[in-house]
Design a protein that fits this description.
The chain is mainly alpha-helical. It contains 14 helices and 2 strands. Helix 1 runs antiparallel to helix 12 and helix 12 packs antiparallel against helix 13.
Length: about 350
């Protein structure tokens, strides 16, 4: 209980504030108290996960991470080879997306594996080790297929790069490798509808009623909000179901239509305050292990937030993942609060 008294109340306040905005967006999208009650229950479960992981010494979690990582792989393998769209597991009356657990398990295991081998700047060996740890679950998740979550996993090597840097020659080699992997994926891995999303991003007018439909409607939602928004009675895109996935992947567009530029500015400010609170935690940490863990956990949340917003305004191809803390659903919400709990654990146990 003493550890729980050391919870970063500012971090929790900004997260809950975003949840409140999310409830408004869900109401504007679906207009039913049933969905709000379901999301409130998910939030309570997520807060329970936050309190639990805040109270556990993060060092114990890092030590347990090989078993957690092995369990993650053991669950992802059958999902990857089951065929069809199979990224979800049913746990009693609940549906859970195991790939979301990778967002806090992979950073824990990555810290354990690389902490004694890291160089400044990053070496080829560092990148190879990181690539192996992140690449295995990333490929399995992409095979489910869940390209959105697999894409978010890229935040982990990016987080390492931001902290430790990289030699120019190695960075150029990595860019070439990325181009080669993208070309290989295009010809041998991506499905037709996934290619269509990319081509529609490059040329939105090519298929405004097909692959580009979501982004087209999202832009209408954002643009029609004006300065003060249209309010519930005047909204059309979400209320009349013109905007697909309005309560999940495109909830930012719903907020923009309902509350206009002022609502968008408020949401962006809340995210800024949250991420500032997360990344400023490293100022109070002395152990490299704790610093690296905070950076990796914060990286995936910031990465997913930024790219969800870019997708909503048509600046990135649609890949399909929720906006953290705002979107309807439980798996990502739980992963977000567990990640915040682990970050709080690094602060609570920093003197031990």
């Amino acid at each position: 209980m003493r550890r729980l008294r050391e919870i970063d109340k500012g971090m929790l306040l900004w997260a809950l504030s975003l949840n409140l905005v999310g409830f408004v967006g869900i109401w504007l999208s679906l207009g039913s108290p049933h969905y709000l009650m379901g999301q409130a229950f998910r939030l309570l479960l997520a807060l329970g996960g936050f309190l639990l992981f805040s109270s556990i010494n993060y060092r114990k979690l890092v030590n347990l991470s090989p078993w957690l990582y092995a369990g993650l792989i053991a669950v992802l393998v059958p999902l990857a080879f089951r065929g069809g769209v199979s990224s979800w597991l049913r746990l009693g009356t609940f549906w859970f997306q195991p790939s979301e657990a990778g967002k806090f398990i992979i950073p824990l295991f990555l810290v354990r594996v690389v902490k004694k081998r890291l160089t400044f700047p990053l070496s080829l060996g560092n990148l190879a080790l990181t690539g192996a740890v992140v690449g295995v679950p990333m490929v399995l998740v992409a095979m489910e297929p869940d390209l959105g979550t697999a894409f978010v996993y890229l935040a982990f090597p990016l987080g390492l790069y931001l902290v430790f840097g990289m030699k120019r020659r190695l960075r150029n080699l990595l860019v070439l490798a990325g181009i080669f992997l993208f070309a290989a994926a295009w010809f041998f891995f991506l499905e037709g509808y996934q290619k269509k999303r990319i081509t529609s991003f490059l040329n939105p007018s090519e298929d405004p009623r097909g692959a580009a439909y979501q982004v087209y409607q999202s832009k209408i939602s954002i643009g029609s909000g004006g300065l003060f928004g249209k309010g519930l009675r005047e909204m059309t895109q979400a209320k009349l179901r013109f905007l697909p996935a309005a309560h999940t992947d495109f909830i930012f567009s719903v907020i923009a239509e309902g509350f206009g530029f002022l609502g968008v500015a408020a949401v962006l400010l809340l995210y800024f305050l949250l991420f500032y609170r997360i990344f400023s935690a490293v100022e109070y940490l002395a152990e490299e292990e704790a610093i690296l863990l905070v950076v990796l956990l914060g990286s995936w949340m910031a990465f997913q937030t930024v790219f969800n917003l870019l997708i909503a305004v048509g600046l990135f191809p649609v890949t399909g993942f929720p906006l953290p803390l705002l979107s309807y659903g439980g798996s990502n919400l739980l992963a977000t609060y567990i990640s915040l709990g682990i970050i709080n654990s690094t602060l609570a146990w920093r003197w031990e």
